[in-house]
Amino acid sequence: MARAFLFVLDSFGIGGAADAERYGDAGANTLAHIAEACAEGRADRERLRQGPLFVPHMASLGLGKAAGTATGLAFAHFGTDLLANAFHGAAQEVSSGKDTPSGHWEIAGLPVRFDWGYFPDTVPAFPADLTAAMIREGEVSGILGNCHAPGTEIIERFGEEHIRTGKPICYTSVDSVLQIAAHEVHFGLERLYEFCQVVRRLVDPLRIGRVIARPFVGETAGTFQRTYNRHDYAVPPPEPTLLDRLTARGSRVIAVGKIGDIFAHRGISEVRKAAGNMAMFDKALGAMDDAGDGDLVFANFVDFDTEFGHRRDVAGYAAALEAFDRRLPEALAKLQQGDLLILTADHGNDPTWRGTDHTRERIPVIGTGPGLRGGDVGLRATFADIGETVAEHLGLAPGRHGTSFHAMIGGHA
Ligand SMILES: O=P(O)(O)O[C@H]1O[C@H](CO)[C@@H](O)[C@H]1O
Ligand SMILES: [Mn+2]
Ligand SMILES: [Mn+2]
């Protein structure tokens, strides 16, 4: 019996990317800067958390060692006691974008070597013919925004006008995205989804990675809140991923959180969504119970990124890591002989960094399994090594990208 559980802590980078300079991110390090802030008492918040970053379970899987591997510098924030069968390493991204689909597709064995389309940081950000087509084909009287913006700020700025006029708020960022915020009740959730599907078709020729529905509630600038009815409309991966290879042979891929959306529902057997990291963790545990021989549970924990990384909320990010870590023993307790658990990330989002965008970083590759020897898997040249390791573990033939480290951790031949 072999099963694999892949948990992505969205945006939990560990620094050290060789090409960070090219992205304006030289020195960015999500984990290290959070740990430093915590150690110096700069991430204390009443009734939320205080003191040094406390993630003993991830530390015992080798998070500190992985951090050292990523940067080449010893990481002093955690002890070095490891679980006997834990493995640890770091991985460099070869995809050109530091976005969520690029990170996840590369993890699943498909590096993204082409360039996505991006909208310039100008006002307007969208080409005039695209805007005209969105209005005409989306049957709205106009659009608001039409610029680069953080999602919470733009709702505060245009939300009341949106309610008054019915014009959706359209914005973008350094990522290949066109995001559309609209009120769940006044505009309507279904209408927002339909509008996004129209826009998805319109931006296909521009190679835009995702159109994202960003519904919100509230009646005034000070009270608007985004809801968990966010929906991502991604382009499908251009080649088969690990997920397609698994489902093609009849194995199940259970997608927890936004994994289904990220892969445009290709190679997905079942989607399980929930609101918030902790509810998502419950879903992931349930999926672990339900997975059978040859199956993969692929979970994404998005709050790290959306609620704390983009919001540059260091204390919030630290608290979210600590909350996740407190739940980890529940997942470890479910591991049986033949199981492989890997914790990783898709890019960085250093909450101490300038701006509000992702940061180019290496990612942790830590995990364990009762039948494994564990050990140091070193610095992996591509995230695809994760997917290839899962592929080998689940008995698939090697794919086109990446190198399995299965033998290094004492996996069965
Ligand atoms: O500021 P918000 O709306 O959260 O946007 C963020 O979320 C998008 C998708 O994850 C990213 O491209 C980033 O711009
Ligand atoms: Mn992400
Ligand atoms: Mn993000």
UniProtKB/TrEMBL annotation:
Pathway: Carbohydrate degradation; 2-deoxy-D-ribose 1-phosphate degradation; D-glyceraldehyde 3-phosphate and acetaldehyde from 2-deoxy-alpha-D-ribose 1-phosphate: step 1/2
Bound cofactor: record note: Binds 2 manganese ions.
GO cellular component: cytosol
InterPro entries: Alkaline_phosphatase_core_sf, DeoB, Metalloenzyme, Phosphopentomutase_DeoB_cap_sf
Residues engaged in binding Mn(2+) 1: D10, D346, H347
Enzyme class: isomerase
EC number, as in UniProt: 5.4.2.7
Reactions accelerated catalytically: alpha-D-ribose 1-phosphate = D-ribose 5-phosphate; 2-deoxy-alpha-D-ribose 1-phosphate = 2-deoxy-D-ribose 5-phosphate
Keywords, in A-Z order: Cytoplasm, Isomerase, Manganese, Metal-binding
Record bears the keyword Isomerase: yes
Top-level taxonomic group: Bacteria
Keyword Metal-binding: yes
Predominant location category: cytoplasm
Chain segments annotated as coiled-coil in the UniProt record: none
Gene Ontology BP terms: 2-deoxyribose 1-phosphate catabolic process; 5-phosphoribose 1-diphosphate biosynthetic process; metabolic compound salvage; nucleotide metabolic process
CDD domains according to UniProt: PPM
Entry binding sites for Mn(2+) 2: D305, H310, H358
Domain Metalloenzyme: residue ranges: 3-397
Localization in the cell: Cytoplasm
GO molecular function, one term: magnesium ion binding
Cofactor: Mn(2+)
Protein task: Isomerase that catalyzes the conversion of deoxy-ribose 1-phosphate (dRib-1-P) and ribose 1-phosphate (Rib-1-P) to deoxy-ribose 5-phosphate (dRib-5-P) and ribose 5-phosphate (Rib-5-P), respectively.
Family: Belongs to the phosphopentomutase family.
NCBIfam families: deoB, PRK05362.1
Name of the protein in its database record: Phosphopentomutase
